[in-house]
C-alpha cells in the first residue's frame, strides 16, 4: 500500500486540513476493505468525521489532519487484516478506529510500530486468530504473554474471559502447558444444585457453559471432547481446586468477584511450577451475601505491588459486544456512583 499526504492551512483558529491518498496493490483485498456498498468506509467516515472517496484501488481521505491520520492508520490496519483473510465485520472496523484514536492519546502506545503502523496483539489457534479490538484488550493480551499471573477486571462484554480461554487454548496447542483448567465459583448454583437432576457434573455444567462456549470457539469440537475425556482440559467449580497443586497448567478463574477471601487465597496458592494463572471478574456484579467481602476486590488491593502480577482494568469503552451493551454499562455505572460494592473501590 502506498500513501501520500497533503496539508492545507485553514482559516485562523481552525485545525489544518489534510488530504491523504492511499493506493492498494490488490483489488480483491481493497474490495474486502471497502465492504459491501462501501459500508466499512461509511462507518469510518461517521466515526472519525472525515470524507473518504473510493476510485478503484485508490482511496482519498479528506478532513481535519488528526482525524485523517487516524483514518489512514485504521485503513492500513484493516487492509493488513484483509490480506490475512480476516472477515472485516463492523466490529473489526470499530476496533481499528479505537486503536487508531488511542495511538494519538498515548504517545508511547506499544501497538505502534515505526511510521505509525498499527499492529494489534493477537492470539492464534488452529481454528482461528483473534486480534485486539481496544487498547486495553491489546494490553491484556500482551500481559498474558509475559506474566504468570494476570487479573482481567471490568464490565461484561469486554472479552476478558473469552481472551483468557483463547490464550489458554493456544498455550495447550503449542505444548507450552500440559493442561488447561477452567473454574468458576458456583455461587448462584450453590443453593439449587440439590434440586437439579443428574450427577455433580450435570448439575454444574449449565453454570460453566460460558467457558465451554469459548473453548469450542477456539478449538475443533472433536479435539475438545478428547481433551475433556482425557483430563487434559478440566472445567470444574472452584471448590474442586482445594488441596491441589497445578503445575505446567493454564488455570483460569472466571467470575472471581464471587469468591470469598479464603477461596481466592486458596485458588491463587494452587499455582505450581510452569503454571500460568488468569483471574477475571467484574467487581460491580457481586452475587455474594450482603455481608461477605469479595475475594477479588480484596486481592486487587493486597497484591497491588507484588512483582510479577499484572492487572488490566477494562472500561465501558472496551465493550465489544452490541453497542447497546456499552450504553447499558454506562447507565448502570451512573446509577451506582457513590455506592459501595462490598470491598471498597477498585
CATH homologous superfamily of the largest domain, by name?
P-loop containing nucleotide triphosphate hydrolases
Q: Give me the CATH architecture of the largest domain, please.
A: 3-Layer(aba) Sandwich
Q: Helix tally?
A: 12
CATH class of the largest domain reads Alpha Beta
Domain PhoH-like protein: 130-333
Family: Belongs to the PhoH family.
GO cellular component, one term: cytosol
InterPro entries: P-loop_NTPase, PhoH, PhoH2-like
Features:
346 residues, alpha/beta, Ribosomal Protein S8, Chain: A, domain 1, Rossmann fold, four-stranded antiparallel β-sheet
Folded structure, characterized:
With 346 residues, the chain is of the alpha/beta class. The chain folds into two domains: 2-120, Ribosomal Protein S8, Chain: A, domain 1 (2-Layer Sandwich), CATH 3.30.1370.10; 125-335, P-loop containing nucleotide triphosphate hydrolases (Rossmann fold, 3-Layer(aba) Sandwich), CATH 3.40.50. Helix content is 41%, strand content 18%. The chain contains twelve helices and twelve strands. The chain has helices at 27-34, 39-48, 65-83, 90-105, 135-146, 160-173, 187-190, 200-218, 221-230, 261-268, 295-302, 323-335; strands at residues 2-8, 17-23, 51-55, 58-64, 122-124, 129-131, 149-153, 179-184, 233-237, 249-253, 276-281, 309-313. The strands form three sheets. Strands 9-8-10-11-7-12 form a six-stranded parallel beta sheet. A four-stranded antiparallel beta sheet has the order 1-2-4-3. A two-stranded antiparallel ribbon has the order 5-6. α2 packs parallel to α4 (90-105) and α10 (261-268) crosses α11 (295-302). The longest helix is centred in the first third of the chain and has 19 residues, at 65-83. The chain starts with a strand and ends in an 11-residue tail after the last helix. Residues 107-115 and 189-193 have low confidence and may be disordered.
Amino acid at each position: 500500500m502506498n500513501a501520500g499526504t497533503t496539508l492545507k492551512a485553514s482559516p485562523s483558529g481552525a485545525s489544518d486540513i489534510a488530504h491523504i491518498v492511499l493506493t492498494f496493490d490488490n483489488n480483491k483485498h481493497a474490495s474486502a476493505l471497502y465492504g459491501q456498498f462501501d459500508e466499512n468506509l461509511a462507518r469510518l467516515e461517521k466515526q472519525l468525521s472525515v470524507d473518504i472517496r473510493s476510485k478503484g484501488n485508490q482511496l482519498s481521505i479528506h478532513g481535519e489532519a488528526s482525524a485523517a491520520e487516524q483514518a489512514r492508520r485504521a485503513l492500513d490496519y484493516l487492509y493488513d487484516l484483509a490480506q490475512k483473510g480476516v472477515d472485516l465485520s463492523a466490529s473489526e472496523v470499530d476496533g481499528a478506529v479505537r486503536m487508531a484514536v488511542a495511538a494519538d492519546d498515548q504517545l508511547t502506545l506499544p501497538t505502534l510500530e515505526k511510521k505509525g503502523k498499527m499492529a494489534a496483539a493477537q492470539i492464534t489457534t488452529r481454528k482461528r486468530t483473534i486480534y485486539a479490538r481496544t487498547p486495553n484488550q491489546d494490553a491484556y493480551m500482551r500481559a498474558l504473554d509475559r506474566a504468570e499471573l494476570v487479573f482481567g477486571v471490568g464490565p461484561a462484554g469486554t472479552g476478558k474471559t473469552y481472551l483468557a480461554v483463547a490464550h489458554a487454548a493456544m498455550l495447550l496447542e503449542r505444548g507450552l502447558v500440559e493442561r488447561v483448567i477452567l473454574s468458576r465459583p458456583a455461587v448462584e448454583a450453590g443453593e439449587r444444585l440439590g434440586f437439579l437432576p443428574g450427577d455433580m457434573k450435570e448439575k454444574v455444567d449449565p453454570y460453566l457453559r460460558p467457558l465451554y462456549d469459548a473453548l469450542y470457539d477456539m478449538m475443533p469440537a472433536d479435539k475438545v471432547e478428547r481433551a475433556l475425556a482425557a483430563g487434559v482440559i478440566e472445567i470444574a467449580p472452584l471448590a474442586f481446586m482445594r488441596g491441589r497443586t497445578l503445575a505446567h497448567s493454564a488455570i483460569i478463574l472466571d467470575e472471581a468477584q464471587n469468591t470469598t477471601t479464603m477461596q481466592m487465597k486458596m485458588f491463587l496458592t494452587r499455582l505450581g511450577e510452569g503454571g500460568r494463572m488468569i483471574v477475571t471478574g467484574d467487581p460491580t456484579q457481586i452475587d455474594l451475601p450482603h455481608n461477605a467481602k469479595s475475594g477479588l476486590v480484596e486481592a486487587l488491593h493486597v497484591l497491588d505491588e507484588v512483582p510479577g502480577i499484572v492487572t488490566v482494568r477494562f472500561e465501558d469503552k472496551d465493550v465489544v459486544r452490541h453497542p447497546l451493551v456499552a450504553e447499558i454499562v454506562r447507565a448502570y455505572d451512573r446509577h451506582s456512583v457513590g455506592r459501595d460494592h462490598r470491598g471498597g473501590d477498585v
